[in-house]
């Protein structure tokens, strides 16, 4: 079922979450161990991230460094198929601009279509660690809006090979990312909203936000989107703080702010067990307020650790 259909049929706020593919060499059971505790809350869909290649350097016997490009977390398509069959849940693979040519993208979408996976999240993706700014693949997409347009074209039966005869259209529901606190590369929040509107006009069916810790930022973001003419569902994404390291890691890596009350509470904790409890309590308060405000779903970023999300879900759903 499409995400938009789940949202239309829901009588209350839905519960969903995102998982990371396991590191290369690990088993699918590692994924199941994360998902199993959360299935009692009946998530209609689960997002599966895609991690593009990384540049690593291997020291040779001569002392020189050899540059290699590796993928440390492959398997997004296979995991989606496994979840679809194992749990009977709709899996949502992330499809990136980074690391993909247009033909690579089309081939991945064809595989997903054959597997009966009807939802995708279209993202530009981050730059590689050795890049200052994002650089697309040769004959790849620079912007997520262009990626959305390619998927939309396939939904209308248009493939890269214009000479194809009797081509069958795909039927993907397309999600995109939104940034309540602005994408870090956007010069202003209004410009970022304009970029988001371009993704919707290209064919996006719904939006999932970057994590945030202040619900007012989500509410203001939704208001800005509506005033700009963006009328698709906007799903809030949240992440419970679990360790003191998150105080520096999350703002640095995801370019988000933390409210002073949350920061002070975490600083006063003596152990990460106490931090985890603060994160759960904050997450419960966030989720309850979002649910009361009529959020279509609440999407949790698990980062491979389900226990704190389970505790929040038990109190809210």
Overview of this structure, please?
This protein is an alpha/beta fold. It has a single domain (3-316), classed as TIM Barrel. It has helices spanning 3-9, 28-35, 76-86, 102-114, 144-155, 189-202, 215-227, 246-254, 260-267, 272-292, 307-316, and strands spanning 14-19, 45-48, 54-59, 65-70, 90-96, 119-123, 173-178, 206-211, 234-238, 297-301. Strands 1-2-5-6-7-8-9-10 form an eight-stranded parallel β-barrel, surrounded by six helices. The protein has a two-stranded antiparallel ribbon with strand order 3-4. Strand 1 (14-19), helix 2 and strand 2 (45-48) form a beta-alpha-beta unit. Helix 10 (272-292) packs parallel to helix 11. The longest helix has 21 residues, at 272-292. The chain is globular.
Considering the chains and any ligands shown, give keywords for the structure.
eight-stranded parallel β-barrel; 40% helix; two-stranded antiparallel sheet; single chain; TIM Barrel; alpha/beta; 10 strands; 317 residues; globular
Helix/strand-derived category reads alpha/beta
Shape by Cα distribution: globular
User: Would you identify the regions where 5 or more consecutive residues have pLDDT less than 50?
Assistant: none
Q: What percent strand?
A: 15-25%
The sequence of SSEs as H and E is: HEHEEEHEHEHEHEHEHHHEH
How far apart the termini lie comes to 21 Å
Give the number of helices: 11
How many whole angstroms does the radius of gyration measure? 20 Å
CATH class equals Alpha Beta
Instruction: Could you tell me the CATH topology label.
Output: TIM Barrel
- Average pLDDT number: 91
Count of DSSP E strands? 10
Question: Any guess at the CATH architecture?
Answer: Alpha-Beta Barrel
Major beta-sheet overview:
8 strands, parallel, barrel
The oligomeric state is single chain
* Spatial order of the strands forming the largest sheet: 1-2-5-6-7-8-9-10
Could you estimate the helical fraction of the residues in percent?
A: 25-40%
Taken together, the total number of domains comes to: 1
């Amino acid at each position: 079922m499409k995400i938009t259909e789940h949202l239309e049929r829901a009588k209350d706020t839905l519960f969903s979450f995102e998982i990371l593919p396991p590191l290369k060499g690990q088993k699918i059971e590692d994924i199941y161990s994360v998902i199993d505790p959360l299935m009692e809350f009946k998530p209609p869909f689960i997002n599966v991230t895609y991690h593009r290649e990384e540049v690593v350097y291997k020291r040779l016997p001569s002392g020189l460094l050899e540059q290699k490009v590796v993928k440390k977390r492959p398997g997004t398509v296979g995991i989606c198929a496994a979840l679809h069959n194992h749990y009977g849940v709709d899996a949502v693979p992330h499809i990136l601009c980074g690391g993909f040519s247009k033909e690579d993208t089309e081939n991945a979408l064809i595989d997903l279509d054959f597997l009966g996976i009807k939802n995708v999240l279209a993202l530009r993706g981050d730059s590689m660690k050795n890049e200052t700014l994002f650089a697309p693949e040769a004959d790849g997409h620079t912007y997520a809006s262009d990626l959305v347009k390619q998927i939309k074209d396939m939904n209308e039966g248009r493939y890269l090979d214009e000479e194809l005869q009797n081509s069958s259209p795909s039927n993907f529901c397309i999600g995109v990312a939104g940034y309540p606190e602005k994408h870090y590369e956007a010069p202003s929040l209004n410009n970022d909203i304009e970029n988001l509107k371009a993704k919707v006009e290209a064919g996006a069916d719904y939006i999932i936000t970057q994590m945030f810790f202040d619900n007012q930022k989500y509410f203001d973001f939704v208001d800005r989107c509506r005033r700009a003419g963006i009328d698709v569902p906007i799903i809030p994404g949240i992440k419970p703080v679990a360790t003191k390291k998150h105080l520096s890691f999350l703002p640095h890596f995801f370019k988000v702010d933390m409210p002073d009350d949350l920061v002070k509470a975490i600083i006063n904790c003596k152990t990460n067990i106490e931090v985890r409890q603060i994160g759960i309590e904050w997450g419960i308060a966030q989720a309850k307020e979002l649910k009361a405000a009529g959020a279509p779903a609440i999407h949790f970023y698990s980062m491979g650790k389900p226990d704190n999300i389970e505790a929040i879900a038990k109190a809210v759903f």
